[in-house]
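Fill in residues.
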């Protein structure tokens, strides 16, 4: 289905949007819960995204099939399924790293969509492919590599660690764009000329949660 909402979901799926996405067109406030088990391994990431009023209104107009000015269960499921399928090629906008190296994540459980106070909410959970121990520097975040969608954490408290081990500390990093560009100038230049629409270096601008753990845990 490619209608007005198809263009909006193109925020998530269309690589050609990259050139037009010099600044975000869709905004969402995020919350991320990192669930840590008693064994010190990351069990799951639980995401909640609350989208801006304008985007949410567009979704309502597009998917309100019976025109009752609300989204019923079937309509919400259609929204969730479209967004789920659209984000697969972008790893569902997740950042997970250990000492700077990307961590492979399983495809999330099916998305859940809700509509609360005139805003679209998307919820989902994902898990690491391999056991992910909290050792070294482990990072978590959310970003859109096309720059079309700005998903950010309004407060540091929206990045949560459940059962943080005593030998670990947490810090929320909010990169300054000018400093990030200056520190990564050559890498960004090389990536742009090699693949202007397909690199994922926009994650250097993303707000992220970093967990640092000592070796004596």
């Amino acid at each position: 289905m490619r209608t007005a909402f198809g263009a909006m979901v193109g925020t998530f799926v269309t690589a050609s949007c990259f050139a037009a996405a010099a600044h975000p067109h869709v905004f969402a406030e995020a919350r991320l819960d990192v669930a840590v088990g008693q064994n010190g391994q990351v069990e799951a990431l639980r995401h909640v995204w609350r989208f801006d009023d304008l985007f949410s209104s567009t979704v309502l107009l597009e998917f309100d099939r019976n025109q009752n000015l609300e989204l019923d269960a079937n309509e919400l499921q259609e929204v969730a399924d479209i967004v789920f399928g659209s984000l697969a090629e972008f790893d569902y906008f997740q950042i997970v790293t250990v000492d700077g190296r990307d961590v492979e994540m399983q495809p999330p459980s099916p998305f859940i969509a809700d509509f609360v106070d005139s805003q679209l909410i998307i919820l989902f959970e994902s898990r690491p492919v391999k056991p992910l121990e909290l050792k070294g520097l482990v990072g978590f975040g959310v970003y859109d590599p096309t720059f079309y969608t700005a998903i950010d954490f309004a407060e540091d408290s929206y990045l949560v660690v459940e059962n943080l081990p005593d030998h670990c500390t947490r810090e929320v990093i909010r990169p300054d764009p000018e400093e990030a560009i200056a520190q990564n100038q050559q890498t960004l230049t090389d990536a742009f000329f090699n693949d202007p629409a397909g690199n994922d270096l926009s994650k250097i601008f993303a707000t992220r949660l970093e967990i640092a753990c000592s070796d004596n845990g």
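Residues 1-8, 10-21 have pLDDT under 50 and may be disordered.
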